[in-house]
């Protein structure tokens, strides 16, 4: 596939993740964040493992547990803490810092060069998310802020390490390993800190199926596929599509209003995502031309 096709396909994942807020608030029981996160991760992970008939070899167990913790258990737990203690706009704005963190982590762990255009696009994207989501009711809670930044750092580290560690299996298998590991970590935590779930309704089950099979299993397989094919900075910028989708669904589904400032923020986010893809594009053509020039001079 072409790079453009890979970008568009990978962008589907955060676009679908933008539905998480709507599904959680409209279809799931409130007050059980870790339990619901475990139910979102573990069944989807076990299903993918069964479908692909692939278990991580012994040498990959430690890496799988670490990645499952970073991408799911730790990230989702901190995300819920931030969501409960901060207004949604503040939490999402802190989450958008992930793109900047990925650029820095990729430099240290992968040797990826830090490009001024990529940094500018990431910073502009954070500004766009802030305009899209922040309101006059925005408040700062220290624990919530730490959780929000920690969640962004967890997902950023998971993204870069998922690129660094590429097992010789399909993206579905890789996703199944990580989801299962994350779910196994979340399950005892949920049992310790949260009460038992009430009987689930048909609407609750529908919401869990959507978040598990589509919002976790299918989309993370697409996401990890994109991580393997695209530059980490380019992939992380696509994550900013999530708040745009969330606000759009709130407008279309819940009848929430959109101010001119919010629409401007959405436009800035989309432009920054586009600019981020260009800034993070590999310089293969430049290297090829430089090589040809060197060869011609040597001749």
From TrEMBL:
Membrane topology of this protein: Multi-pass membrane protein
Any one Pfam family match given in the protein's UniProt record, by short name: EamA
Family assignment from sequence similarity: Belongs to the EamA transporter family.
Taxonomic lineage of the native organism: Bacteria, Pseudomonadati, Pseudomonadota, Alphaproteobacteria, Rhodobacterales
Domain EamA: 7-133, 144-274
Matches recorded under PANTHER family: EAMA DOMAIN-CONTAINING PROTEIN, INNER MEMBRANE TRANSPORTER
Organism: Thioclava electrotropha
Presence of keyword Transmembrane: yes
Record-annotated membrane-spanning stretches: 32-52, 64-84, 90-110, 117-136, 142-162, 174-193, 205-223, 235-254, 260-276
InterPro entries cross-referenced by the UniProt entry: AA-Vitamin_Transporters, EamA_dom, EmrE-like
Localization in the cell: Membrane
Chief site of localization: membrane
Keywords: Membrane, Transmembrane, Transmembrane helix
Name listed for the protein in its UniProt record: EamA family transporter
């Amino acid at each position: 596939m072409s790079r453009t096709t890979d970008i568009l396909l990978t962008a589907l994942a955060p676009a679908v993740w933008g539905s998480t807020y709507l599904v959680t608030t409209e279809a799931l029981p409130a007050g059980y964040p870790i339990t619901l996160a475990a139910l979102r991760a573990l069944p989807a992970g076990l299903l993918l493992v069964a479908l692909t008939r692939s278990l991580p070899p012994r040498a990959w167990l430690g890496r799988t547990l670490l990645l499952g913790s970073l991408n799911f258990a730790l990230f989702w737990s901190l995300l819920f803490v931030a969501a409960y203690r901060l207004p949604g706009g503040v939490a999402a704005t802190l989450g958008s810092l992930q793109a900047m963190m990925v650029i820095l982590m990729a430099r240290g762990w992968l040797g990826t060069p830090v490009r001024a255009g990529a940094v500018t696009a990431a910073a502009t994207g954070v500004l766009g998310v802030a305009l899209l989501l922040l309101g006059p009711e925005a408040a700062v809670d220290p624990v919530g802020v730490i959780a929000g930044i920690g969640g962004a750092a967890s997902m950023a580290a998971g993204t870069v390490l998922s690129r660094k560690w590429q097992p010789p299996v399909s993206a579905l298998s890789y996703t199944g390993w990580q989801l299962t590991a994350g779910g196994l970590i979340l399950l005892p935590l949920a049992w310790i800190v949260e009460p038992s779930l009430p009987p689930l309704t048909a609407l609750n089950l529908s919401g869990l199926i959507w978040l598990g099979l589509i919002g976790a299993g299918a989309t993370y397989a697409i996401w990890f596929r994109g991580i393997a094919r695209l530059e980490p900075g380019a992939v992380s910028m696509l994550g900013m599509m999530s708040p745009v989708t969330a606000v759009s669904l709130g407008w279309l589904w819940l009848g929430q209003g959109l101010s001119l400032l919010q629409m401007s923020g959405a436009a800035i986010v989309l432009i920054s995502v586009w600019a981020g893809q260009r800034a993070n594009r590999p310089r293969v053509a430049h290297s090829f031309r430089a090589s040809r020039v060197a060869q011609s001079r040597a001749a």
